[in-house]
Amino acid sequence: MSVAGHKETLSFQTEVSQLLHLMVHALYSNKEIFLRELISNGADACDKLRFESLADDALMEGDGDLSIEVDFDPEARTVTVRDNGIGMSREEVIDNIGTIAKSGTKEFLSRLTGDQARDARLIGQFGVGFYSAFIVAERVELTTRRAGMGPEHGVRWISDGTGEYSIETVEAPRRGTEIVLQLKADEDEFLDGHRLRHIIARYSDHVPLPIRMRAMNEKGEPGEERETVNRASALWARPRSEISDDEYRAFYKHVAHDFEDPLAWTHNRVEGRQEYNTLLYIPKRAPFDLWDRDRRHGIKLYVRRVFIMDDAEQLMPGYLRFVRGVVDSNDLPLNISREILQNNRLIDGMRAGSVKKVLGLLEEMAKDRPEDYQAFWSAFGQVMKEGPAEDYANREQIAGLLRFASTHTGEAAQHVSFADYVSRMKEGQKAIYYITADSHAAAAHSPHLEVFRKHGVEVLLLSDRVDEWLVTHLTEFDGKPLKSVAKGALDLGDLETEEEKQAAKAAEDESNDVIERLKSALGEKVEDVRVSHRLTNSPACIVLSEHDMALYMQQLLRQAGQNLPGTRPVLEINPGHALIQKLRDVPEEHVSEWAEILFNQALLAEGAQLEDPAGFVRRLNSLILSRL
């Protein structure tokens, strides 16, 4: 087949069509970002070529001067952005432009609201900057050839962004990618060389590759000679005193492909046994794929300002996977691979140092900018709760950054720290009390809290799915143990008066007959039946052993296919409750029904699923009818 003969017209993936429409209509007030996005993509392509050429120098094809060029033609009404980076093959063009080759696309689209400002933020989180070209262009033509392939393997992609695109094989003597934008009728501002230079200076001055435009002659027209219009220096390698906040924000948008400013950043140079620079950012909002198992990490690794790899997961632990930025080492070899990164002492040192800087930045934010920290926690709090299990060395520091809901505030918002809790502990209180549940409402209304409310003791309300995992790895804070109010025997110690202890002992002695009846009726369903020190209003509750997993979590794991051993809980009763007192007089033939109802009610209050819900309803109806 001839080079020019391999041409076809294809339809965009449905999600791409929706995204194109959104790009055009949601970002109309910030049109100039199209140039930033195309330049960023070109810089990434050059970085990738530089990295791949370390293993295969032939990919450079004798041209190692990597750069990005920007041209404009007022007569043809076009703006052109080209790079001599890695380029794309035909398959890569279809995969990267015709479809959205990322998981989570449906979730992304499901979160679109029609609110243009909010949806624009989602676009930035999704990282699909190429499509921003259609904000100003009525037609986009992309010509590309992958490095290492012959000129006959060039590819031309053309679309007006409405639903279809054409793709054909063309002759392409030069590697890399050229994008020609045919501007819309009302976009003349981008046919001005001064305007384009201003945009590049504002958004892309930090790109560590030369961005070149044709030099202007005496008549103000572009000539044949090209000049570099950006600083073309690695921002992270410059002294902090020489970098403005606007430059830091612009670099974040480049490195993170985000449309919003970052929430905070930390820029550091380390010297001594190791030499490296870090520039790390905390985003303002969580990306839509934060919980995706195939998620991308946000750290770029450089060696002596030479790009090595994207998504260097070895440089940041999973619980900090939202961090974006750059780590540049002076000590690593240029040909380092992902496999070598996994067992490298230098990498371990840079990772430990970077983690400390991020945690320090978060501590500073929590202390000096609590509103910003609350915004951070709302976005990334559940991820941070993975920290104590994953990063034992920094467990105490991470614990200080955690936030929870609490009975002290009564709100679902998580803004109570362990330090806040400790400062409010009652005299004689030895433990930090908490409860885990499937929802905030279930935690806040749990019968286990009754005695704590009576004594005015604060309890942390943990309702995130990760919380049960958290408390198995974080057992104390500031020397004070964490104690679940729903597990194990409850000993309030000095919080109870001597009179209360004596009254509880008397209630136990008077309830032996009821306890024996319940034990006999429930049999192997329970480990034990005993008088409760937790309850003041409810008739009964379920109590697990210290090391048992919460019932709602056991249920979730079983639904996910996990084979868990059965749990035999303890049933605690409130001898002062009318139902328990009534049980003393229930005929023997009805004790079993009463016992089952009490037990099932207690299970439901814990968020458990009944083995025989129909039987529970039948017994309850029968009991109600017998009393009518």
Structure, described:
With 628 residues, this protein is an alpha+beta fold. 37% of the residues lie in helices and 19% in strands. It is built from 22 helices and 22 strands. The protein has a 9-stranded mixed beta sheet, covered by helices on one side. A 5-stranded mixed beta sheet has the order 10-11-14-12-13, sandwiched between helices. A 5-stranded mixed beta sheet has the order 15-17-16-19-18. A hairpin with a 5-residue loop joins strand 10 and strand 11 (276-282). Helix 1 packs across helix 5 (116-126). The longest helix is centred in the middle third of the chain and has 24 residues, at 345-368. The radius of gyration is 32 Å and the shape is elongated.
The value of Rg in angstroms is 32 Å
- Taken from the alpha-carbon principal axes, the silhouette is elongated
Tally of DSSP helical segments:
22
Mean pLDDT across residues = 86
Main beta-sheet strand count, sense and barrel state: 9 strands, mixed
Percent helix, as a range, is 25-40%
Strand order of the largest sheet: 1-6-5-4-7-3-2-8-9
% residues in beta strands:
15-25%
**Distance, first to last CA:** 88 Å
- The counted number of beta strands is 22
Indicate the structural class: alpha+beta
Residue stretches low in confidence (pLDDT < 50, at least 5 long) are 101-106, 120-127
Task: Explain the layout of strands and helices.
Elements: E1 7-11, H1 14-26, H2 33-53, E2 68-73, E3 78-83, H3 90-98, H4 105-110, H5 116-126, E4 137-145, E5 154-159, E6 164-170, E7 176-183, H6 193-203, E8 211-216, E9 222-228, H7 245-256, E10 264-270, E11 276-282, E12 298-303, E13 306-309, E14 324-329, H8 338-341, H9 345-368, H10 370-384, H11 387-390, H12 395-401, E15 405-406, H13 418-423, E16 432-436, H14 440-444, H15 450-455, E17 460-462, H16 467-473, E18 476-477, E19 480-484, H17 498-510, H18 512-522, E20 528-531, E21 540-543, H19 551-559, E22 570-573, H20 578-583, H21 588-605, H22 613-627
Parallel strand pairs: 2-8, 12-14, 16-17, 16-19, 20-22
Antiparallel strand pairs: 1-6, 2-3, 3-7, 4-5, 4-7, 5-6, 8-9, 10-11, 11-14, 12-13, 15-17, 18-19, 21-22
Helix pairs in contact: 1-5, 9-10, 9-12, 18-21, 21-22
